[in-house]
Amino acid sequence: MEEKIVNIEKFNGDIEPFKVEKLKTSLRRSMATEEEINTIVEQIMPTLYNGISSKEIYKKAFSLLKKYNRTSASKYSLKRAIFDLGPTGYPFERLISALLRHKGFETKVGVVLQGECVSHEVDVLAEKDGFSYAVECKFHSDQRTVSNVRVPLYINSRFIDIQNHWNKDPDKAAHLKQGWLVTNTRFSADAITYGECVDLQLMSWSYPENNGIKDNVDAYTLYPITTLTTLTKHEKDQLIEKDIILTIELFDTPNALKEIGVSKTRIKRVLTEILHLCDL
After folding, report:
1. Least buried of 16, 22, 201, 204, by fewest C-beta within 10 Å?
2. Beta partners for 245?
3. Which domain holds residue 161?
4. What residues pair up with 134 in beta bridges, in sequence order?
5. Which residues contact 160 (CB under 8 A, 6 or more apart)?
6. Is residue 84 in some structural domain?
7. How far apart are CA 261 and CA 267, in angstroms?
8. How many CB atoms lie within 10 A of CB 3?
């Protein structure tokens, strides 16, 4: 297929040439078949024009993928789905807590800890193998937001204040070992360099390589309900208000769908989508 030469506008406002292979790669990550990928690309190519936004291309690809493979469409929409967990950061904190539990940690969400100077609210307190970890979650609704070096500087200063007090307390069974900073967007190069220097564990959508949020969500099939293509945005918002964040939680409490007015036929479709998405 001859690649159409057009410039596209990225989410951050940058202009770059459209590369069909980048579109194919993003579709492959959703586990779409090569036949589905080629069919989608063939339909998108004639609609491209100079200045088209990457957001518009994503919408076209998602709409077509949903038509051919709903499970892949759910996976393809993961990044957008995490943004849709907002506007508060609490559902994101619950997602990160669930990821850590699947890695063998015991977790608590929203814990107030005393520091040497002042008290601090820690988004997720995690414990494993006799060590504790203070996890700060920075949720952003705008994917253009970049966490620069000032963010880990601030988070690390809070962690040190907590650590200095915690590790002097003889009643603490676990040693407070490390601070973590997790964001659903990305870190600047300086932020990553600083985090490595002071041993502050950073995690973003795609960092560390092969161990970012996307990799972990896919590995543990901990998809948020906002990935589901069989529910409306209003229905998803209602479920989040009920503190149902993950598709597996919804699968275990299907009565919540009935409570928000979803019909029996559609409940069956939703549960079937979760079965395929989470490989249950």
Report:
1. 16
2. none
3. 90-220
4. 125, 179
5. none
6. no
7. 10
8. 13
Question: Reading across the β-sheet that carries 106-114, which strands appear in turn?
Answer: 106-114, 119-128, 131-138, 175-183, 201-203
The number of residues in the chain equals 280
pTM of the model: 0.88
Same domain, yes or no, for 123 and 186? Answer: yes
Long-range contacts of 208-217 (CB under 8 A, 24+ apart): 213/82, 213/99, 213/182, 213/184, 214/78, 214/79, 216/99, 216/103, 217/78, 217/95, 217/99
Q: Is 39 part of a structural domain of the chain? A: yes
Coil vs helix vs strand at 246 = strand
Answer whether residue 48 is part of any domain.
Answer: yes
**Do the Cβ atoms of 68 and 42 come closer than 8 Å?**
no
Residue-level pLDDT, tens digit, the chain, 280 residues: 445 578 998 877 789 999 999 999 999 999 999 999 999 999 999 999 999 999 999 999 999 999 999 999 999 999 999 999 988 999 999 999 999 999 999 999 999 999 999 999 999 999 999 999 999 999 999 888 999 999 999 999 999 999 999 999 999 989 999 999 999 999 999 999 999 999 999 999 999 999 999 999 999 999 999 999 999 999 999 999 999 999 999 999 999 999 999 999 999 999 999 999 998 8
DSSP state of 209: T
Is 208 in the same domain as 253? no
Does residue 79 come out as left (phi exceeding 0), alpha (psi in the -120 to 50 range) or beta?
alpha
For 244, counting Cβ atoms within 10 Å of its Cβ (0-12 exposed, 13-18 middle, 19+ buried), the class is buried
CA distance 72 to 62: 9
β-sheet with 15-17: strand ranges across? 15-17, 7-9, 52-53
